[in-house]
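note to self: dont lose this again. the chain is below, predicted strucutre after it. 198 aa total, dont forget to put it in the shared folder this time
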Amino acid sequence: MVEPARPRVAARRKVGGDGDPEVFCADEQSDVVIDVDRWHRLATDVLRAEGIRGLAELSLIFVSEAEIAALNEEYMGKQGPTDVLSFPIDAAEADVVLQQQSPSRGPDRAPPDPADMPLLLGDVVVCPVVAAAQAPTHAGTIDDELALLIVHGVLHVLGYDHDEPAARDAMWARERELLSDLHWHGPVPAEFRQDHDE
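---
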């Protein structure tokens, strides 16, 4: 699993406020049938489980092999398709977005309050064709593979990483917890392989 090399968020941000985060989900490929509503719920549930509340947005996009290969080359400098890419928007970038708002407001309006604007968490891009191909030797089934990739991608957007052994172990443990709670609704199946990042 690959994510763009960008400055990482030092700690997971928890967004305050009322309501739930919004997940925008789109299926932009036609090779594998995707239950968009189901995976939308999983991504939303992961954000809730990680303490994200209020005005926060995440995009989950399913794309073709050609599209993810183009993204992989453009942002990672690697040839060929991959299974998932995460594009987090770091806190500093979110501040820039909020501060660069157009000054077009009426004379009776107060300046925009950043607390009233959604925090753009980032994008998770999944390739179902790659997921289907690697599922038998990876997570076991296409269903489990897609769930793993979505959880993995969302955790990357929230600042988790696996660049060092301790960080990897923490990320994998959290993936297992979230999959158990939100995908399987019970213990992790014995056939689920935890070597998915190696």
